[in-house]
Design brief:
The chain is of the alpha+beta class and 292 residues long. 28% of the residues lie in helices and 24% in strands. The protein has 2 domains: 2-61 and 167-287, ATP-grasp fold, B domain (D-amino Acid Aminotransferase, Chain A, domain 1, 2-Layer Sandwich); 87-159, no CATH class. Strands 7, 8, 9, 10, 11, 12 and 13 form a 7-stranded mixed beta sheet that branches. A 6-stranded antiparallel beta sheet has the order 1-6-2-3-4-5, with no helix packed on it. It holds the Pfam family ATPgrasp_TupA.
Length: 292
């Protein structure tokens, strides 16, 4: 009966979904299902806007792939009442960027990518991620190289969000591990660079939890941000709209909670602790049973 339910009721398409088990196995299987499909990139890069009806957003079996495009993710978040960073420029041809019109502080990130690759957190010509100085010409050359590798790649130039105190710094990431409206844990990352930093885990009531993922070192305790309740409410709202497991990132800023991005396969399922595996697998079984 269980196999019948999983194949015919909860999974009518008959996709070979992972059975109950490790969270990491489920994530790797999802990556295979999402991206080993001939139409995967077409779906991801379908241009969407917040004004598009929800039926257009969800016109594909695994429509959530659209939200792996960071511009689409912004639009989806806006559609659901979330604040996003101000967009200063969007496009594929970096030659058209007018750096003279940009403020001294700005952020560049690709619409396709992960792990903070090709992200520039700029203040007065210095990228805070690597502490190197970049000329406009140097940035243009680097972005052009990326579009040669992937013609579908575009770049977003956004405002550099100030922290709660109104200062410019690398903001803490508040990463919500969500299951159809339920929050299993929140990872707070104090990032030093794209590949280094410290993380601390909390539940939705800001109680500290055991280490869930060991990609970064165990960090110190953090004060609860003033906009935390808004983050929780918005994460649950977006998670319910997303429908299946997803990690949703927010920032705590001078103007409150600001949406960052959706991540459907965080860390490709790597570096999860035994506690993390058990916690996240339990939430998947309880709230996303039979879903990819």
């Amino acid at each position: 009966m269980l196999n019948y339910l999983k194949t015919n009721v909860l999974n009518p398409l008959g996709v070979d979904l992972p059975d109950f088990g490790k969270f990491s196995v489920r994530i790797k299987k999802r990556h295979e299902i999402f991206w080993n499909d001939i139409n995967a990139e077409l779906v991801r890069n379908t241009p969407m806007t917040e004004d598009d009806p929800i039926e257009k957003w969800k016109d594909d079996v695994y429509w959530q792939r659209k939200l792996s495009n960071k511009f689409n993710a912004r639009e989806f978040a806006k559609k659901h009442g979330c604040d996003v960073a101000k967009l200063l420029w969007k496009g594929a041809d970096a030659e058209h960027i007018d750096f003279s019109a940009l403020p001294p502080q700005y952020v560049i990130r690709p619409t396709i990518g992960h792990s903070c690759s090709n992200v520039y957190v700029m203040t007065n010509g210095v990228n805070l991620f690597d502490h190197k100085y970049y000329t406009p010409a140097g940035i243009k050359d680097a972005l052009k190289l990326e579009t040669l590798k992937n013609p579908a790649q575009e770049f977003l130039i956004e405002e550099f969000l100030m922290n709660d105190s109104g200062a410019y710094e690398i903001l803490k990431d508040y990463k919500f591990f969500c299951f159809n409206g339920k929050i299993a844990t929140i990872c707070v990352i104090r990032r030093l660079s794209p590949q280094s930093g410290y993380n601390t885990f909390y539940d939705e009531h800001w109680n500290k939890m055991k280490m869930v993922n060991k990609t970064f070192g165990d960090g110190e305790d953090h004060p609860k941000p003033e906009c935390f309740d808004d983050m929780v409410e918005q994460a649950k709202r977006l998670s319910k709209a997303y429908g299946i497991f997803v990690r949703i990132d927010f920032y705590s800023t001078y103007r409150g909670a600001v949406f960052g991005e959706f991540t459907p396969t965080p860390g490709m399922g790597n570096n999860y602790s035994r506690f993390g595996e058990e916690l996240l697998s339990k939430y998947w079984e309880n709230y996303c049973y039979g879903l990819v």
